[in-house]
Amino acid sequence: MASKSIRSLDSSNEKIDGFITCSAVAHSSTANLGPGFDVFGLGLDAFEDVVTITKTIKIRNSIPSINLTCSGKGTETIPSELSENSAGLVVRKMIYDFNLNKNANWDLDLHITKRIPIGYGLGSSAASAAATALAFDGLFNLQLSKSQLIRYAAEGEIASAGTRHYDNVSGSLLGKIYIWPSQSQLWMSP
After folding, report:
1. Model confidence, pTM
2. Contacts for 76-79 with beta carbons within 8 Å, 24 or more apart?
3. DSSP reduced 3-state for 36
4. Of 24, 45, 47, 104, which residue is most buried, by most CB within 10 angstroms?
């Protein structure tokens, strides 16, 4: 069933002594749609991933450390190295682009709760990347547009597909059906 809502654009941000936590949800998706293979992206409300990012405040400024953990069925096959993980690549890119990597007074804990079956063509890596972009945006109050969130989430697809794919991450973030005729254009269904 196609996802009808943009519920996945909701994130929650909670401040507790010494740390701030932001969680986001992204839905499953598919981009294996006949002649629209890797061009069409369709959001599905069948499954979802949840990403929680916790920013712990440090006493001294230094280069931030980022810890990545996963839970859920099949997560033992998911790389825990940031440079090999779809969520890790998103965080690294966003930290770099927003110049947050120098003299930071925080560390990050990134936790992925996998609820989308891995390896079934349901956009499992795209959902993790999409939820990560959304949670990071909320945590640092970046107020990114939907298009910017999609572009950051697509960065995570490099880990699983070897290149940026906008089709699955569009469906995971926004629901409905999307067409990416090129990397610079997006057509959204009404």
Report:
1. 0.85
2. 77/118, 78/112, 78/114, 78/118, 79/159
3. helix
4. 24
User: For 4, phi and psi rounded to 5 degrees?
Assistant: -100, -15
Stretch 33-47: mean pLDDT: 76
The position carrying tokens 């997560």 is: 75
Beta bridge partners of 42: 30, 177
Contact (Cβ atoms closer than 8 angstroms) between residue 102 and residue 141: no
88-106 confidence digits (pLDDT tens): 999 999 999 999 887 788 9
Q: How far apart are CA 148 and CA 136, in angstroms?
A: 12
Q: Which residue's entry shows tokens 């009808």?
A: 4
Q: Which residue has the tokens 């890596």?
A: 125
What is residue 114's DSSP assignment? -
Which H or E element spans position 171? Answer: helix 167-174
Q: How far apart are CA 59 and CA 80, in angstroms?
A: 27
Q: Which domains does the chain have, with CATH numbers?
A: 8-28+46-162 (3.30.230.10)
